[in-house]
């Protein structure tokens, strides 16, 4: 029986009050899945369950296209679990995918934070990419410390948010929130591939980092 990884995607579909839609960023799910799916069983959870909203819908990307046209993958993505359906003991790793929606419904979801803390404290891996680290901001371990305190992390940076034109739209700046929680933020140039590993915590900077994050997570799980 294959070991299991829990992917977390947002349920939030509105980009602030702009009238624009958002959701999970498609390649931030498909790219890691493309390197992990053959080796591990992947389950998907979202704050509200069911079919989550999708952003970054680019079918010119061959990996996106392959997954989007896979009926088995579509079946799984159309029926994501709710946090109360998840048994944390079943998973060796948790991965928070990004997409701007994560900024609204990841940080204060106590059930998802509890699941991630449980996986981590049993020796599992916590990973996230782009806006996915919004889910790490309020993860408390059993001793009351924040997971990211004193740890090297990366995420979508303040500079990237500014360049993207969304700094005034998101509810907070993710890089700032992580450093305010005591994280040691390490980033590369905007919109370049960059993954940071600190023990069993693995974070990637942006959509360009999603494939590398999957490869880094694969290597960590195969140790």
The quaternary organization reads as single chain
* Mean pLDDT, all residues: 98
Q: What is the total tally of β strands?
A: 10
The spatial strand order of the largest sheet comes to: 3-1-5-6-10-9
Termini separation comes to 18 Å
How many strands, which pairing sense, and closed or not: the largest β-sheet? 6 strands, mixed
| Helix proportion | 25-40%
Tell me the structural class: alpha/beta
Strand content: 15-25%
SS element count, helices: 8
Low-confidence stretches: none
**Rg, Cα atoms, Å:** 16 Å
Could you state the order of secondary-structure elements as H and E? Answer: EEHEEHHEHHEEHHEEEH
Shape: globular
What does the model show?
Strand 9 and strand 10 form a beta hairpin. It is built from eight helices and ten strands. By secondary structure, it is of the alpha/beta class. Helix 1 packs parallel to helix 8. A six-stranded mixed β-sheet has the order 3-1-5-6-10-9. Strands 2-4 form a two-stranded parallel ribbon. The protein starts with a strand and ends with a helix. The mean pLDDT is 98.
Topology, pairings included?
Layout lengths: L3 E5 L15 E2 H11 L4 E5 L8 E2 L6 H7 L2 H7 L15 E4 L5 H4 L4 H12 L3 E5 L22 E2 L4 H7 L9 H7 L3 E2 L9 E4 L2 E4 L5 H13 L1
Parallel strand pairs: 1-3, 1-5, 2-4, 5-6, 6-10, 7-8
Antiparallel strand pairs: 9-10
Helix pairs in contact: 1-8
């Amino acid at each position: 029986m294959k070991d299991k990884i829990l992917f977390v995607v947002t349920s939030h579909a509105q980009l602030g009050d702009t009238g624009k839609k958002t959701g999970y960023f498609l390649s931030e799910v498909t790219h890691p899945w493309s390197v992990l799916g053959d080796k591990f069983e992947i389950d998907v959870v979202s704050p509200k369950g069911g079919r989550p909203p999708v952003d970054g819908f680019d079918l010119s990307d061959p990996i996106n296209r392959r997954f989007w046209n896979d009926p088995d993958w579509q079946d799984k993505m159309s029926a994501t679990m709710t946090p109360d359906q998840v048994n944390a003991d079943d998973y060796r790793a948790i991965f928070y995918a990004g997409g701007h929606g994560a900024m609204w419904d990841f940080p204060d979801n106590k059930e998802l934070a509890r699941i991630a803390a449980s996986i981590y404290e049993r020796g599992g891996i916590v990973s996230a990419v782009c806006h996915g680290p919004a889910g790490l901001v309020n993860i408390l371990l059993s001793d009351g410390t924040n997971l990211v305190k004193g740890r090297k992390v990366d995420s979508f940076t303040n500079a990237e948010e500014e360049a993207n034109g969304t700094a005034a739209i998101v509810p907070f700046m993710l890089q700032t929130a992580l450093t305010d929680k005591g994280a040691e933020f390490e980033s590369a140039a905007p919109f370049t591939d960059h993954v940071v590993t600190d023990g069993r915590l693995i974070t990637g900077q942006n959509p360009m980092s999603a494939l590398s994050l999957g490869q880094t997570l694969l290597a960590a799980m195969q140790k």
